[in-house]
């Protein structure tokens, strides 16, 4: 299962359910230079846009039902996959700049994850760049972190992506955010911080994981009990993980490319 599919259902024709989370939200210290959103997702998705996305979802459902079963036969699989990918790319072109664009990006990334981690990671990085300054940029970085942590067992590289999910500020440019927008952004931030604590605990730095949760509790005291329980679970998981010898030694991770800002400069 792809990192995106951990958070989205495999098939959803009710794409409108996603749109509530597709909002502009320039986080403090995030977004393009100057703090301005270059291409706001202000366009309303038309009925034709939704139909295009639905068609891609239907093709994907057929593909998965036919070719992702244990007893599936490979004949025609490559062509069917190409047709689904083409349908999502067509939907992406037609939905660009609308509230439906992020949904299509993440569905496409999830599809590509059926083939390779690298393909999914590349698409998520494209999505993050195109959706810069929105809550869905945060979402793309979060999914990249999950991909490295959960699928590739690379907590060090996962942390580089998760740290890009910064705590949201109250305003996007000159526009005050709606309460629903802030809630969505704060949920992603809290989730990313929890995954960062998992990274630190897996790498043997339990004190750093505890300090991260202490900061979260200070920032969100109304969630103190839940966060305390989550910390205890994270530390138990990391201990069990290390006791099985599943974790890689520090500095030996085989990683996908790190975020551009984290790559060493060329000599």
Would you write up a description of this structure?
The protein has 267 residues and is mostly helical. The chain has one domain (4-248): Serine Threonine Protein Phosphatase 5, Tetratricopeptide repeat, CATH 1.25.40. It has ten helices and two strands, in the order H-H-H-H-H-H-H-E-E-H-H-H. The chain has helices at residues 16-19, 47-67, 77-95, 101-112, 117-130, 135-151, 155-162, 179-202, 206-219, 224-243, and strands at 171-172, 175-176. It has a two-stranded antiparallel sheet. It is globular. The two termini are 39 Å apart. Residues 6-40 and 248-267 have low confidence and may be disordered.
Task: List descriptors.
267 residues; mainly alpha; Serine Threonine Protein Phosphatase 5, Tetratricopeptide repeat; two-stranded antiparallel ribbon; 10 helices; 2 strands; 57% helix
Itemize the secondary structure elements and their pairings.
Layout: H1 16-19, H2 47-67, H3 77-95, H4 101-112, H5 117-130, H6 135-151, H7 155-162, E1 171-172, E2 175-176, H8 179-202, H9 206-219, H10 224-243
Antiparallel strand pairs: 1-2
Helix pairs in contact: 2-3, 3-4, 4-5, 5-6, 6-7, 6-8, 7-8, 8-9, 8-10, 9-10
Structural class: mainly alpha
Q: How many distinct domains?
A: 1
Uncertain parts: 6-40, 248-267
* CATH fold field value: Serine Threonine Protein Phosphatase 5, Tetratricopeptide repeat
Strand-residue fraction? Answer: under 5%
CATH architecture, by name, is Alpha Horseshoe
